[in-house]
Structure formats: C-alpha cells, structure tokens
Amino acid sequence: MLLKLKLSQLRYLLLALAAIVSFETLAHGVDDSTRIFLENNTGVQFIPFMYIGAKHMVTGYDHLLFLVGVLFFLYRGKDVLLYVSMFTIGHSLTLMTGVLANIQMNPYLIDAIIGLSVVYKGFDNLGGFEKMFGKQPNTKAAVLIFGLFHGFGLATKIQEFKLPEDGLFTNMLAFNLGVEIGQILALMFILLIINFWRKHSSYLKFAALTNTALMFGGFLLVGMQMTGYFVN
Predict the structure, then answer these.
(1) pLDDT digit string (tens) for 107-118?
(2) Which of 114, 135, 137, 197 is most buried, by CB atoms within 10 Å?
(3) Residue 139 burial by Cβ neighbours in a 10 Å radius (0-12, 13-18, 19+)
C-alpha cells in the first residue's frame, strides 16, 4: 500500500514537472508577427495591444504558477478578490511606470526574482516560515510586493521592442487592460480546477506535494534565468 502511494505521488510529481517544462516552451510567446507589429506600430492601437496583453498573461507561466500558489489555500471569495486585487495593483503600477518612465532592469534578474516569488508562495503554503523562523510574514504585503516585480518584468519585456512614443500611453493602458482580462480568464480556469479538486480527499493529501512541486518549479525558473544572466 505504501509503495503504491509513493508511486502515485512520484507520478504526480513527474506530471507537474512535465507541465512546467511544457510551459517553458510556451512562455511569454511573442511570435514574429507580434514582434513586427510591436516594433513598427504607429499611433493608438487599442484592440491589438489589449489582445497582446491578454495573450501575454495567459502564456506567462511564471505569473500563473505564482497565482496558483496564492489561490491554493484561499477558500472564501472575498479573500480571492482581496489577494488578486493586491497583485493587480502591484503589477499595474510597475508595468505602466516602467514603460512610460523608461525604467529598465536586466530581464534575467527580474525574471529570477519572479521565480523566487513562486518559491516563496510554495514555502509559505507549506508553513515553512512558521516552522523555520517562528514567524509568519504579512502575506498580503508579500503578494503586493511580488506583484510589483511581476509588473516590472512585463515592463522590461515590453521595452525590448522599443515601442514608438506616438500613442504610447493609450497603448499601454490597452495592454494593461488586456493583461487584466487575461488574468481573469486564467484565474477562472485555475479556480475551476482547484474548486473541483477540493471536493476530493486527494486535495489535502497531495497539498504538501503540490506546494513542494511549486517550490521546485520556482527554483527551476530561478536557475534558468541565472544561467541566462551569466551566459549572456
């Protein structure tokens, strides 16, 4: 029985890792047509930028992994709304400010910090801070702070395309709106899966393993980004 349980857990962990690797191939997908559009657009392009923002969030595996960690132990609708709002305020602020004020940071380092946000949330869900340090950090403040880094990561990627100044403010508003739409769609999908899973005993049984896999995924993201930083 014990061996069977361990094999099931191992299979579950491998599936999680495979999903992470698959996400990597889809991450932040900017195809050639999108890249050409971003680099050559002129004036206000509200709908295209809104679409690109939504697409960027839906394919942004690092953002989605962090949100999975945030939502994992939130059972009440008002808590979900509060934490998602904190994240939204954070990433909207730095996304707009970063692009409009032309504030840049090495993309590998900012993405490594975003990877750490995934590690943090998995560790927090495992009760790691209480167990190791005897103190629980302010989770709402942490979500807001990491939201700032996630938004700055988006701003850094947008700035790689040297967007024209003409219509930039409106285009960024459209992009940010698209990010929020993409986030809502992603959250609906994540919440549907989590709420369905919560009805089964396996949810709590695999909670520790799931959050351990989340931490592992975060460390993997950090390792990938730091490797890119030193290689490039």
Answers:
(1) 999 999 999 999
(2) 114
(3) middle
